[in-house]
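Dear U.,

For the methods section draft, I wanted the exact inputs and outputs in one place so we can describe them consistently. I've listed the two proteins in the order they'll appear in the manuscript figures. Please don't edit the token lines directly; just add comments below if something needs changing.

First protein:
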Amino acid sequence: MVGYIFRNITVFRQGIMVLLALAMTSFGFAQNLSFETGIIIDSVAVINSTDTFTLYLPKNFDKDKPASVVFIFEPAARGTIGIAPFIEASQKFGHILICSNNSRNGLFEKNFTIIDRLFNTVFERFTIDENLIYTAGFSGGSRLATTVAVLTKQIQGIVACGAGFSQNTSHIPSINDSFSYVGLVGNSDMNYQEMQGVKEWLDTFGIENEIFTNEDDHRWPSSDQILKAFNWLELQAYKRNIKPKDDLIISTFYTELYEEGKKLESDSEIELAVWEYDRMVRNFSAYYNLDTIKTKISNLKKDKKYSSDSKKREGVKKEEAKLRKVFVERFNKEISGLKTPEEFNWWHKELENLQKKYLLSEDEQFRKMGYRIGYAIYAMGVETAESQFYKNNAKKRLYCHTIASLVAPDRPYAFYLLAKDYAILNNKDKTLENLSLAISKGLTDKAYITNTTAFLKYKDSVEFIRLLEGLNND
């Protein structure tokens, strides 16, 4: 049995020396603990810790046989939510699913400590096949999943959903890495362009990878998308002689990709069809004669629509980068200044332009680009407010959350955050005003509101009590 401990390797992060490593440690035999199979168990204790994790064992799980395992990192430490889309893949391939209820978006060092304890617990309690260890995550959890693989050199494959790499250069894959990487991203996701760049980076170092695009925005992919990722990782296991080949899995996945390519072609999405057929050549040439597919690719590339699709995609990519730079530079200038704006006139004007030119465009690619930019601004506001630089500065947080509310006026969360900011600043009227807006836009969890520390000062207020009347307690 193997366990994993972060220790003894010196890594530098922002000028601070951090001791990290993944070493293999013997625990002897796995403990004979019994867990029910085929259900989500949401609070399994981590050994020698108050931490917990969510567990799913496939129905055919055999505790006496080495099993594959997927460590899932959910950005808000919601174990049940993190595991749910992986269940179908777990049932098909027999993976144990593990999702921490403590690891979340934040400092990597804190997460490393949590993961250290989690890994030790899992490898002590279960018999794990050390050649079939996977990491997966969404958003910041995706960046963490890749970081764990890069630092440990013990991960077989990564399922990266909605985000690429950490900004820390020591966390970025390089020529020294041999894992397989599959990315899942929506074409309306704020990190869509980033994920396309991830493929280019991994190709440079010869790291096996595929990026699958879906129609979502920034969210956990559906179970069918997760299953597609593990179908591809299964091919990688065959390629590395880690698992015996299953002809049915190979043929079924081949047919799935071929049908997707055909549909894209019939919909006149010529460049995307070429990408899908190219994917087939990359992954199935070892099993089938694909001369017909290669000829199809060659012919499609001669189509004028292929050239126009490629040209338009590059144009959208450049325009998106230029616009995002404008908004980021303005945000950084204002948030770092001695005084943040009160009227936000520039933001009103530019967001209105974004709405008219892109979000309301008849062109689908421009609409999706506008959505990606808008969501990126929203995320920038919310995440910056939570950063170590501004989380204790209520006025700076107020600025960040105002930006988020301007770009997403229909979302309740930004107004809930504004209400918290005003409560901290002891502005009761503004607190109640924004809390009322949050409720009107869909915030209905009464307990969530009443358990917010910033609002405790108003718990006996008649206006506050009246505002919460009729809300649910869950």
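Second protein (the one for the lower panel):
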Amino acid sequence: MSNINYPDHVAVPCRASTEPLNLNNNMNSKALNLDQVVNRAEVPTLKFDGETMRRIFGTADLWPSWVADMDFQAAPEIQEALSKRLAHGVFGYEATLNELPNAVVSWFQRRYDWSFEADHIITTPRTLNSLATLISLFSSEGDGVIVQPPVFYDFKLILRAGKRRLVKNALKLEQGQYQMDFAGLESVTAKAENTLLILCNPHNPIGRVWSKEDLARLSEICVRNKVFVIADEIHSDIYFQHKYTPLASVSEAAALNTATCISPVKSFNLSGVANSMIVIKDEEKRQYCKDWYNRMQISKNNVFTNAAMLAAYTKGEAWLEQVTEYLRGNLKTLRAFLLQNTSLIKLIEPEGGFLVWLDFRELSFDAKQLESFLVIEAKMATNPGHWFGREGAGFARINIACPRSVLEAALLQLGQAYSNSLNESGNKNGA
């Protein structure tokens, strides 16, 4: 795809020039080869699993872009830590690592000016477990839980399983960017039966990295109306414009009214090995949550998880910065291709993360036609927009965390399908 021009005027810097690049003592590691194509089908991999893809999409002969992990190898420092732990050869019960929570505290304090104590952290098996547990503990069956669609589809599944009511406060798409509907938020939070709100920050699937002002306004509304906030912030470390702001950092009131879910799984591509964490400042709520995890015996350490997470937070920042830069390049490639080759497919410009929201509405497809276009014509396994709520109809989510050559090949498929669709439409109109 050497014929694509990449206009410099649309490139977006990752950090403001006034921000010091405050990195850890491992930032001099050598350049990564992120162009390397790793055969992920050599190991059991959900994204590339043929049986799963055939069940969901009807075929496995697709570009797998439907699972939110990266196709890049983990940081060399993480691989080294895992190899060293494996070489020890004894994998019995492991003592709690004080270094790990301290490293997490240091990471968020240094990068995002969010201060909390190590004992505010509760370790959990995964983020979906954190969400399900928090919803169960801090609401009752029949309560309303507010979400802001289009939003990660598993929120709905968790609420349904827990017999909670899904209460929508849909985002508004204005001039190509999604905004929170604060008037709507005032209305739904004022109802006593709505007791929780799930915030997605950065927002999956649209890529918004919510501003400090937006978060402060959301928090003030929720605190005033006694709505507790569960903040899913696991996509936080990859951003292209302004940096991520933790909701719990905007004020003391916000900190006391928030349970924040964090994890290195997205930032460091550790979904198959790392744990999740919940940060709760309110002492009573934190102890209530800790007691539940202890009663359920969901508190044991995994020796490889500990090694991987500690390496990520203490030695992985160089890798993260290089991956972020590479993703910026992939975004630039995608942006230029759409502008030059598929002008009716619009990019909803992401501010962070490696998931990208595309607008296909100008092609005038219904839901089934769009799925057929993407799967049959473009040979892409993506996430149809309606999975994220009816507000996502006409959109689709793709994953750009892959070698650029793989992304370029997928875009050529998309471009060919687009041309065929326009030609077919023209022939019908002329018949």
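Candidate sentences for the figure legend, describing the second protein: The CA atoms of residues 325 and 344 lie 27 Å apart. The chain has two domains: 8-76+317-430, 89-315.

Thanks,
Y.
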